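> tool_call: predict_assembly(chains=three)
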Amino acid sequence: METFRILIVDDEDDFREAIMKRLRARKMEVAGANSGPKALEMLDEQEFDVIVLDVKMPGMDGIETLRAIKQKKPLVEVIMLTGHASVESGIQGMQLGAFDYVMKPVALDDLMDKLRQAYERRVLQLEYGRKNI
Amino acid sequence: MTDSTPHLPGQESWPGLWHHLAVYGSSWLVAMLAIILGMFVSLLLGLVAALAAGLSFLTIHRLLRQKAVADQEKHLVDEQLLQSQKLAALGKLSAGLAHEINNPLAIIRQEAEWLLFLCRQSEPLDMTEAISGLRQILKQVDRSREITTNLLNFARRQQPIVQAVNLNRLVGDMVRLVAKETEQRRITVVTQLAPDLPSINSDAPLLRQVILNLLNNAMQAIDQDGTITISTQPTEPEAILIQIHDTGCGISKELLPRIFDPFFTTKPQGKGTGLGLSICHGIIERLGGTITVASEVGKGSTFTVKLPITLTPKEI
Amino acid sequence: MPTGPSILLVDDEERFRQNLKKMLTAHGLTVTAVGSGDQALAELAKQPYDVMLLDMRMPGLSGLETLAILKKDYPETEVIVLTGHASVDAAAEIIRLGGFEFLLKPCPLEEIIAKIESAYERKLARQERPG
């Protein structure tokens, strides 16, 4: 199976490390960031295909981070990670260009599915851009 | 200072470069330079094409608008507002574009100047330096391409990206996402998802936006205590239906025809932007479907979305 | 051999900054490079510079804000503004009104060097003039 580059953004170290380990076990290329600003910094330095982004983080929250990511790299796909969301915040995330929401606790198969779909969308979008330029 | 300044790379003589290449046999370097030149030219062509697409889109749109004004004077204000928003967005985009493109171009220029400078030196070319420079040029071309791709997407009002979508799963996900809020309002959400629903080819994130907006609308109509029923089913050739029914306040016959107009809202000021349903309407149209509403005051409303199983991307 | 000008380069784009420093240094010039307006002001507080190359669009303290402070506190430093923008906006107008030189990115290295040289000559001429 094709591997692609994933960035996990979550302030909970244990959770982040566990997810990274499990995704690595599935031969994914995974990096982690413990805050929104850190994630944006990493985005300047290297390319990622899909970002998994926690909604609730101290300081710069997930929605703010999503907005900044989409300004910087509009074609990077972002999957929002949340407990439960209010309808308003759900709409806001989707309007800002999120690909999907994944609920905590995360079922790995479910996450893998969504990662794959998000990656497929990115590839399609890049192809579409290339064809039309 | 001037006398200590060596020759500028701009004064580089071509024979010198060819001589260097011949001596050090770097045929790969020639290939790389050719590739870069090609990429650079296609980047510029792409930019022109994208701008042209944007302009022709605006011209056509303006003609269509003139016709619409004659037909429906009452929509004039809304239309103008949307149009000026689009133009403002385009203006902002092109202002930022010069800067965004010129920055990578500046680096590409530097790297090329530096490579020429190195090639002209009498000592053998430092391959690590040369490779680092060429890598950087490729990186900056990619960066510029991402910008032009983005521009093109804007000019085409973000063409939907068509993927296989499991609609039942998508609806279930969105209902679960907002379960806490519906619980708090003591609203029961019933899902009736057809087990034989075929997977459809459409744009998943856009559909999620529609489902969330419709759930939001139903919840606002109920406020507290009530039921939202959301169902999916296959329907006549090559289409599927999604229905969202609420036991809320309903909408009067007079207001019903305006419900999908932008900025139209029955809610008190400050509650809701009046854009949710018009966004749904816009999205569903782009996805080649229809959205309709039936409602009775005091009993509730039903929104029906019909989507083709396969979306063929429409050209603008 | 005459000592050349001391140059302060301010640009948030790291690769651009490093490249320009490397290339100017290769041409015998002395360059200090920093990544933000704040860092530039801190550097100026430490020692005077003859010529400054300043990027217009940076996060944090923008080029325009930095310019205003320079004009007030360090009028003896010659400033060359680097911009990726076409010269039709308000910022370009302000730069011209303030009597600053400016260069449109991307521009050839020799143009940058020529600008630095003429800025330095202007500075020396000003110093020689009494009063």
